[in-house]
Amino acid sequence: MFQRLREDIACILERDPAARSSWEVLTCYPGLHALVLHRLAHGLWQRGWLWLGRFISHLGRFVSGIEIHPGARIGRRVFIDHGMGVVIGETAEIGDDCTIYQGVTLGGTSLAKGAKRHPTLGRGVIVGANSQVLGGFTVGDNARVGSNAVVLKPVPTGATAVGNPARIIDAQADAAREATAAKMGFSAYGITQGDDPVAQAMKGLIDHAATQEHQITLLWQAIETLSARQGESAKAGCVPPEAQTTDQFDAAALTQLVK
Question: Is the pTM of this model over 0.85?
Fold first, then answer.
């Protein structure tokens, strides 16, 4: 038990720059208090002490503002940051090293008793503030759920889900950006630079326009070079005055507008 507690404190000190000491984490972090009480409630629930498990879960909700059903399964080194308003349903499963922010709901969309109604989070998943993950599907290892997202379908390993209803950003397309983010630490609140699909589309259009302009410039430069070899009169006839023979498209300035 104490080994798990030491792990929990260490993971909070690692992921929260506001945490200054183990004593502060132990006494002032409601996410830690909720997890400790949940382990007691879950142990009672598994042994058939259902009412007592629910009652301790209720006390944990009163103390921390975090509601975790005693039937939920939670792995090691899970960090519930701030925590107020977090709701974790009965059949939810949370893998090791996950981070969950305030206002998150791991809820169900089915009324069938005994069925898998709540989501399963793989290892290292980050669920951003006020997001809702609803249904008995799986969010893959190291996936991210952006703040305020409403996720109603599975999220592949390493992918990012943003929006309402959530859209999935392909993990391979985002790999380079995530590698850079990893050097600076995990993605706080489940947000990375490439989370907004609209901004991503705009950046793609800007890059495409810049590439086209560069290719047109190269073509005019080639025509100008060939004309120069044939003499000034030929050059004047082949290259009109308005032809753009130098790159003028400022892709970087437009990209800044959609960041």
Answer: no
pLDDT in tens, 171-210: 555 555 555 455 545 555 555 555 556 666 666 676 667 6
Domain boundaries, the chain: 2-195, 199-257
Of the options 3.30.420.40, 2.60.40.1190, 2.160.10.10, 3.30.930.10, the CATH number for the domain spanning 2-195: 2.160.10.10
Contacts 24+ apart (CB under 8 A), 138-144: 141/95, 144/187, 144/190, 144/191, 144/192, 144/195
The 10s digit of each residue's pLDDT in 93-129 is: 999 999 999 999 999 888 778 789 999 999 999 999 9
Residue 140 three-state SS: coil
Tokens of 173: 């397309």
Beta-strand runs (E) in 159-256: 160-162, 167-169
Name the 3-class secondary structure at 162.
strand
3-state secondary structure of 42: helix
Cα–chain center distance at 174: 12
Residue whose pair of structure tokens reads 């301790």 in the numeric block? 56
The answer to whether the CB of 91 falls within 8 A of the CB of 70 is: no
> What's the Cα-to-Cα distance from 200 to each of 196, 197, 208, 259, rounded to whole Å?
6, 5, 12, 9
Peptide bond between residue 30 and the one before it cis (omega within 30 degrees of 0): no
